[in-house]
DNA sequence: CCAAGGTCCATGCGTTTGCATGGACACAGG
DNA sequence: CCTGTGTCCATGCAAACGCATGGACCTTGG
């Protein structure tokens, strides 16, 4: 509303803020493209995220608590998402023998096949999209910086 | 479910996929910290996103269509979010004199004050979080890479 | 061994989201 | 001018979300 003094917080916010904002906006922009790409077919991106995360766990199994750390979703929402995926046969739920409170989510054969199929298409989609914007050296630099950022914030 | 051949799609997916995955995961991790930080007080992060985006527009006004490009939200959801924010007095909605279909969203005095107040706290939160993980040179490098990535994908 | 406190998951509930759609307007080509 | 096509925003509706909470189970200290 004021004619010009809007610049204060946006211009001189410092390199940390600018870095975060660039990170956020590039992630959002890229995500929209990847999400809109026709590679998900029988599942949603969020379901694939769960499958993908499970795929990186030993034996394709993980506690809900551990999935919750990776997937951007509240614990109740994740709980119900897993429930739906179990009904669809993508995962199975079994009690944790080592901890009576825990629920272990297991990738089924069907779920693993789907993970591979969608994963391959999705990866190709990523290569197309990221590949035109950054060369291989820049991709690696970006990866290093993001990994360092994530490691440094996990205090 | 297979004992070991799970590595295929995760290991050798290529630098582009690894870069995107690192970007995604660092963004999610950081976002959780920033979202959990007690700086939002009277509004939600998504509402702040709208205020912030409006703040960077000339005269603090923008079409819903333009907001939609920046904010990660479907058009109907954004439409209703703006509606709620208008009821709360943070923005005002008026028809676009230049385009009968359009709705212009205007930052009110109240909304702009709130934007500044939350923005300052949020920026401080970002500096704390990002600052401990990356030094200033790395922050700038990250910003450049992300900007280039976003520019390159906007084809 | 027991009590107190913490962790983990599931469920009730109100809110918000996305999809599909519709109405109003803009913008060409004939 | 006017008709067809495309754009922009709002709304009905079902699905999904987050918050608050509860019950079951671990864990620690006395």
Automatic annotation (TrEMBL), chains A, B:
SMART domains found in the cross-reference section: HTH_MARR
GO biological process per UniProt: response to stress
Regions crossing the membrane: none
InterPro entries: HTH_MarR-typ (IPR000835), MarR/SlyA-like (IPR039422), Tscrpt_reg_MarR-type_CS (IPR023187), WH-like_DNA-bd_sf (IPR036388), WH_DNA-bd_sf (IPR036390)
A family per Pfam: MarR_2
Location of the HTH marR-type domain: 16-151
Keyword Transport: no
Source organism superkingdom: Bacteria
Entry keywords, A to Z: DNA-binding, Transcription, Transcription regulation
UniProt key word Transcription regulation: yes
A GO molecular-function annotation: DNA binding
Protein name: Regulatory protein MarR
Organism: Pseudonocardia dioxanivorans (strain ATCC 55486 / DSM 44775 / JCM 13855 / CB1190)
Lineage summary: Bacteria, Bacillati, Actinomycetota, Actinomycetes, Pseudonocardiales
């Amino acid at each position: 509303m004021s004619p010009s003094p809007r610049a204060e917080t946006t211009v001189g916010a410092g390199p940390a803020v600018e870095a975060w904002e660039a990170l956020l906006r590039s992630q959002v922009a890229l995500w929209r493209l990847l999400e809109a790409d026709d590679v998900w077919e029988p599942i949603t991106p969020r379901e694939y995220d769960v499958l993908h995360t499970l795929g990186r766990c030993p034996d394709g199994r993980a506690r809900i608590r551990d999935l919750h750390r990776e997937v951007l979703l509240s614990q109740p929402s994740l709980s119900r998402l897993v429930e739906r995926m179990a009904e669809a046969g993508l995962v199975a739920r079994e009690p944790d023998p080592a901890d009576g409170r825990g629920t272990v989510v297991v990738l089924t054969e069907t779920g693993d096949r789907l993970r591979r199929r969608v994963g391959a298409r999705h990866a190709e989609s990523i290569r197309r999209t990221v590949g035109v914007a950054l060369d291989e050296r820049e991709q690696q630099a970006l990866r290093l910086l993001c990994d360092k950022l994530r490691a440094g914030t996990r205090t």
